[in-house]
Metalloendopeptidase
Amino acid sequence: MVPYIRAHDRYFRAHTVDSMYALQLYVAARLLGFCTAGIDGSLLNALYERFKGESKLPSHFTPDMYPELSSRLYQGDIMLPISRNAILSDYYKWPKATVPYIIHYNFTMDERSRIRMAMDAIESKTCLRFVDKNDGSSARALQDLGHAEHLYIVREHNKGCYAMIGYHRDMGSPHMMNLEAPSCIAYQGTVQHELLHVVGLLHEQARNDRDKAVTIYWENIDKAYWPDFNKVPDNVTSSFGLPYDYTSVMHYPRFAFSKNGKETIVAKYDSSMALGQRNGATVNDLRKVNAMYNCNGASTTPNINTNVNSGEYQGNSFNIF
């Protein structure tokens, strides 16, 4: 059973799925979750198939530091589940804050080590645990936790970086995360960005209060990509009272999805400020995870003096209230 709104289904059956705005409205409607009923997979499948290849970057903007923006998916790197919608609620958190995973065999040992280092950095400041499902010593522990699902990390060529949002019970297939090598593994922050999607974090600039912190220059964004800059309602996600984090590892860069080489998202208090980075998760990124998973016994206020190389980046976050 998943959050579902029948009235919105009737609306979208009567309108074409050929509109990117329709996709945005449909997903938003499904996220609100005012009632529960069985899911009609046919319409979501049609929407997914229609738009999964559309969000490609303009040819003049393909920065190596942000390969996730070229994955041709919703908001660049978010994989819309075919038979489930993704929302941030207890239902979509990984059980016992544990993420079983399998890394595909075609990653090199060095690449596997880089992925594991990104996981270790998150683990060191949160109560999250990433457990190798192929490790025999972990199999019994995972069975005791009752995990039926796992994260499957693959490296499909020319697919960029992407991940599903949150945990989905009884999905019947692995939770997919793609890390095209070497671009998606070059920066620890890129791997962490996708891992934080997996555990339930959305993009920072999708916060409902973002207009107090940044300006979106819609005229510099092709209309086909406008939905990638839409805000998420407060009843779908929470910032847990944390200030807006301009340098969150989950933030878009200033020129994301630009159609003319001009800025698309700019900080209000300092228009020259760099936005986003891929060095690693910031203090507030990790605080958000701890708040989301109620990490009792784990630090909800990570050591702000931690070195960037340990996976915790010291960026700029400002209270905008």
Remarks:
- The longest strand covers residues 98-103.
